[in-house]
User: Fold Carbohydrate sulfotransferase from Potamilus streckersoni.
Amino acid sequence: MATKINNGIKYVPFDNRKSLQSLATKNVGRTISPNTTVGKIMHSRLGTARDHCLVAIKNVGLSTYLLHGYALTYPPKNMVYCITPKVGCTFWKRIFRFLNKDYVGEPKNPFDITRMFSHFGPINHMEKIDLTPGNITILARNFTFTFVRDPYARLWSAYVDKFLLPDFWVAFGKNIVAQNRPNATQKSLKCGHDVSFREFLQHILNRIKLGRRVSSHYLPIHQLCSPCHIHFDAIGKLETFKQDVDYILRRLGLSFLMENYTFQTHEEDEIVTLIDYNFWLEKRLPEECFDPVTIAERLWKALQLKGYLDETETFPEDSMKHLNKPETIRQELKDRVFKSLYARRSPDRHWMTRRKWLVEGYKPVSNFVLKELLEVFQYDFEMFGYQKKPADIFEGRYL
Assistant:
């Protein structure tokens, strides 16, 4: 069947408009009784999604859209999670692996499962469901939830984790360089190590608008886990992650999973995981593309951008250069990071610093690219209640 492209979304024609209009109308009715503060918030979020789905179905033909995402299940609790990368998915993959006993060793809690195993380990017991129309119908019988995030923050986070750091250098970075930089150096073409945020945005937005394949890490969430197609019982947000996680797990009788899990625990886990994972990537990159000291310096910068390290903290390059082995450099980096971290720990300061660097990241981005971003992520902004033109990002711009 021929496909159609509309607003960067690929459609496969089939007549499903009436059923999706019915789904969108019922969506709020399925939510849990809003007898708590968080329950009321969830009720409101589902209502916002429902209202915008009804408009989108009429104006765009969203009824013909096939989702690109997938879901994880835990049958004993009729629990289904629609995965959205860059919105706490490592956290939830650990939860589902732990519940389904899909791990190695004897972890005492979900957070003993490593990031590498949570993403790349074999799936022997846990069910992973592609979101075909038939499977979506089945999901309606379960408690189904997903998590969303402000598109500006999600794209910036994807860039920092995947392109400032080496995860996507070879897989995607070198192609971005080849297609967008006429005078690229040979190292850039081979390693893809120096993609700018502007180049990243231009490349992925163009591909999405043309209906070409891109990583799920920066595909719009409505193309992965559309509330117009799936009966969600809860929509969590990264901005209120802990309270939304607590709410969902409490509703399912699984609150024990979060015992002793605090902001400090999350912070330390993310830092250790980030450092270990990026040094683990050494075996996946060409030798000339992985210099341990350079990777350590980029991790230091990434932790500053994430609000874990103060911008005044200088990377200890001289001491790192005297270390010979990647393992020694990795451990020295952890020691230095945690020494700085413990001296300046503050959740409020953490989030303020993150926001400051995000705004700085968008300053070199042209109005043309921002306009394209608004078009491609229009339904994420509208369905999930995010501000399209935040004042700090759009200050001095006329769009």
About this structure: The longest strand covers residues 143-148.
